[in-house]
Design a protein that fits this description.
With about 775 residues, the chain is of the alpha+beta class. Among the domains are: about 5-65, Beta Barrel (OB fold (Dihydrolipoamide Acetyltransferase, E2P)), CATH 2.40.50; about 75-135, OB fold (Dihydrolipoamide Acetyltransferase, E2P) (Beta Barrel); about 390-565, no CATH class; about 585-755, OB fold (Dihydrolipoamide Acetyltransferase, E2P) (Beta Barrel), CATH 2.40.50. About 25% of the residues lie in helices and about 25% in strands. The strands form nine sheets. The chain has a five-stranded antiparallel sheet with strand order 3-2-1-4-5, with no helix packed on it. Strands 6-7-8-10-9 form a five-stranded mixed β-barrel. A hairpin with a 2-residue loop joins β13 and β14. α1 (about 145-150) packs antiparallel against α14 (about 550-585), α2 packs across α3 and α8 crosses α12 (about 500-510). The protein is globular and about 75 Å long. Mean pLDDT is about 85; it is low at about 670-680 and about 680-765.
Length: about 775
């Protein structure tokens, strides 16, 4: 192969061009529109760098298409001038799919369908396909979920073999299942979960105990023993591995295990016997884990508590809730005492602990959003979190000390490029504390505490969080940076996470002095490519050549990490869809929000009361030239000195909603007679009076805006009448990261609009 040729995967863009995403730290290669005519999003290709474009990006030419994506394409069936076609819902597919009349099956014009390609695109020909599945009408309840599970290839149907095996499982614990297990049925273990929880992985119990020469606690964390019922390599296990995780949507869950296991036989439901794996710990008064042991047991959950109920009891032991629970209340108080000790240990370790805002969508029976609220995180949440962390740490240490191959949850320190950005930001903000080349979690906490009383505390904490990497699953134990643990894994949720199930199997093998071997089917599976690391990231340490079981464990880690990201992306996509539908009802209305992200092309603003994020494009900022300061993360007007930074409070109007693009546009609401000024923006180039920031969400909505030059409107909003003509709608978004951009206010009296339908697909970034 020519040295100038590079292999990668095509990533389409909603504007028609694309990129080839290369493995490792190799920069993405830009593909102009003409190079995208013969390829589609997710195709694997070989490219040669032809030149460098005017923006300094390497521009490539496709020399060979190595592998066509097998993923189905979801879109809306249209009839234009007597020709049937499917307009892809995902804007990264830049071409309509032609469908012959005899290939549409039972689909009706206007319905959302799944299409598979029968002919790939060519330089002078559109792709051709056939309708594989009809999902229904675009406004059907739950359609956003049906689209997402197929768009992200989320497995949502169990195999016949899986269902057959699940059906053959018993309905309750049998006497034979209890053999060799510790009987804990007399121990008042309880579950504590959210009000809407349906499967219960974990139960807890705590009592005072003498630890060494001092006082402490005995903490039991009992976890559902899924591994007893799901045997390696059988039909249930194959389906569980394929999914790797349960996927949570508003009002619907796609479980990793069949319902008979996830909500029945494995779920630690109250007042029934269940098999479990127990982490039995002795914890000192200062929160250190003095000793621990693992063993299989049979338990009997004495109660099902909710977080709200436990928080009320902890606040008032004479409350109505406390009086109803009687003898269980003292155990909850012991659990709370142990939590306070574990919190002391967390602080001594210097674990990163930032308070973030999590939201919850409240929907009606049809799936329509009624309201969006902030989740309240009380002491009950924190009690369970610390108990689960303690059990996970013990599991990781147990596997590491046994020298057995296993899976760890690894969170490495910040990469060099992000660390440099953070250092520059802290310096620009006048923060005296700094970070070295090899920072520790405690260094982050020092900065957080030193700046907690500053007006811009939240935006500083946001930048601290953004500098970190994403946690992954891997057989190599490199510790957990954020939690400040030398070894960490996932042990506490085997009903909904496959890595936890594997950890249980390894622990059982070590306890029985055996060795857990991965099924032969995994030894021959192709290892998926590692996630691309950004340019400037800290290079990985050289790894020894992996073979056999070691290679299989590496593959399992990559597979589980990738599917975890897939589940998150699918969930965010559905939430973005729902929020767009919700905001269509509020077009033209005015709200107050805070800047949650600053880019070269505008400001992302999160509404204070609705927790919805939208874009104020740079052309909406008034009659001034605005430059993007990437060090201070702000836009600054050259003439007026107005500064828009993280946390700046703005009054906005909802101006446009693009359902297909998952994007919401805002415009600034300015005092009458003032142009180029907003009272909530900071004044003067030296001003340090920045507002508090709300933590941004890395959802599909922001991604859709990023880098868009002339993002066009939705496909699913196109006319579905035969022989109809589409109307083009434009957002007018432009980007120019290296130059100042002149803002332009919307004309007075202009009306907000819902995006019209384009005649050609625009791409999603």
């Amino acid at each position: 192969m020519n040295n100038d040729e590079i292999i990668g995967v095509v990533s389409g863009h909603r504007d028609g061009h694309g990129f080839v995403v290369c493995e490792g730290t190799q920069s993405d290669i830009y593909l102009p529109t003409n190079e995208m005519r013969a390829v589609l999003h997710k195709d694997r290709v070989r490219v040669r760098v032809a030149r460098t474009d005017r923006r300094g990006r390497p521009e490539g030419r496709v020399t060979e298409i190595l592998e066509r994506s097998q993923d189905p394409i979801i879109g809306r069936l249209l009839n234009e001038a007597g020709i049937f076609l499917v307009a892809p819902e995902d804007k990264r597919y830049g071409q309509d799919i032609l469908v012959s009349k005899n290939a549409i099956g039972s689909a009706q014009v206007g319905q959302v369908v799944v299409v598979e390609l029968t002919e790939p695109p060519a330089l002078y020909g559109q792709p051709v396909g056939r309708v594989k599945e009809v999902l229904g009408e675009i406004d059907d309840p739950g359609m956003e979920i049906e689209i997402a599970v197929r768009k992200y290839s989320v497995p949502h149907e169990f195999s016949d073999e899986c269902l057959r095996l699940a059906k053959g499982l018993p309905d309750k614990v049998r006497p034979a299942d209890k053999k060799g297990r510790v009987d804990l049925t007399d121990v008042p273990l309880v579950t504590i979960d959210g009000e809407d929880a349906r499967d219960f992985d974990d139960a807890v119990y705590c009592e005072p105990a003498k630890v060494g020469r001092g006082k402490g606690w005995r903490l039991l964390v009992a976890i559902a023993d899924v591994s007893h019922y799901v045997q390696p390599g059988n039909g249930i296990d194959v389906d569980a591995f394929d999914r790797a995780t349960s996927v949570y949507f508003p009002r619907r869950v796609i479980p990793m295990l069949p319902e008979k296991l996830s909500n029945g036989l494995c779920s630690l439901n109250p007042e029934v016997e269940r098999l479990c794996m127990v982490c039995d710990m002795l914890i000192t008064a200062t929160g250190d884990i003095h000793a621990y042991q693992f063993y299989p047991a049979v338990m009997f959950s004495h109660a099902r508590f909710t977080y709200t109920e436990v928080a009320t009891i902890l606040q008032n032991t004479r409350s109505h809730e406390a009086l109803q629970r009687g003898d269980l209340v003292p155990h909850l108080l012991h659990l709370h005492d142990a939590y306070r000790g574990l919190q002391q240990a967390r602080q001594r370790r210097g674990a990163v602990d930032f308070e973030t805002v999590e939201t919850q969508i409240i929907s009606d029976d049809t799936g329509r959003i009624e309201r969006i609220i902030a989740r309240t995180r009380n002491d009950a949440h924190k009690v369970i979190e610390e108990a689960m962390l303690a059990a996970n740490v013990c599991a990781a240490e147990f596997i590491a000390q046994s020298k057995h191959l296993g899976i760890f949850r690894v969170h490495e320190g910040p990469p060099a490029n992000k660390l440099e950005i953070l250092r520059n930001y802290l310096k620009a903000m006048g923060v005296t504390q700094t970070l070295g080349d090899d920072p520790k979690p405690g260094d982050y906490q020092v900065i957080a505490k030193a700046t907690k009383d500053r007006p811009e505390a939240k935006q500083i904490h946001t930048m601290l969080l953004r500098s970190m990497q994403q946690a992954v699953y891997t057989p190599t134990n490199n510790g957990h940076f954020g939690l400040a643990f030398e070894a960490y894994t996932h042990f506490t949720s085997p009903i909904r996470r496959y890595p936890d199930l594997m950890v249980h199997r390894v622990i059982k093998a070590v306890l029985s002095e055996k060795k857990y071997q991965l099924p032969d089917s995994l030894l021959t599976m192709k290892v998926p490519p590692a996630r691309k690391k950004p340019a400037g990231a800290t290079p990985e340490k050289p790894k020894k050549a992996l073979t056999g079981q070691s290679l299989a464990w590496e593959m399992v880690g990559l597979h589980c990490s990738a599917n975890e990201r897939r589940a998150d992306e699918a969930s965010r996509d559905v939430e973005a869809w729902l929020k767009c539908k919700y905001m269509r009802e509020h077009l033209g209305e005015e709200f107050t929000g805070q800047v949650s992200a600053v880019t070269s092309f505008g400001l992302f603003v999160t509404l204070d009361t609705m927790y919805v994020e939208g874009l104020v494009h740079i052309t909406e900022l008034g009659g001034d030239f605005f430059r993007f300061d990437d060090i201070r993360q702000e836009l600054r007007g050259e003439r007026t000195g107005i500064r828009y930074a993280l946390g700046t409070v703005l009054n906005i109007q909802v101006s446009r909603v693009d359902l297909d693009g998952r994007r919401i546009d805002f415009r600034l609401v300015k005092p009458e007679g003032e142009v180029g000024r907003d009272d909530t923006a900071e004044r003067g180039p030296r001003s340090d009076r920045l507002r508090e920031a709300r933590l941004p969400k890395d959802g599909a909505g922001r991604a859709a805006h990023g880098g868009a030059k002339s993002a066009k409107a939705s496909n699913l909003g196109r006319s579905t009448k035969p022989n109809s003509t589409s109307t083009l709608g434009h957002s007018g978004h432009t980007t120019s990261p290296s130059k100042a951009v002149k803002g332009k206010r919307a004309s007075k009296g202009s009306q907000p609009v819902v995006s019209k339908a384009p005649s050609k697909r625009s791409r999603r970034s």
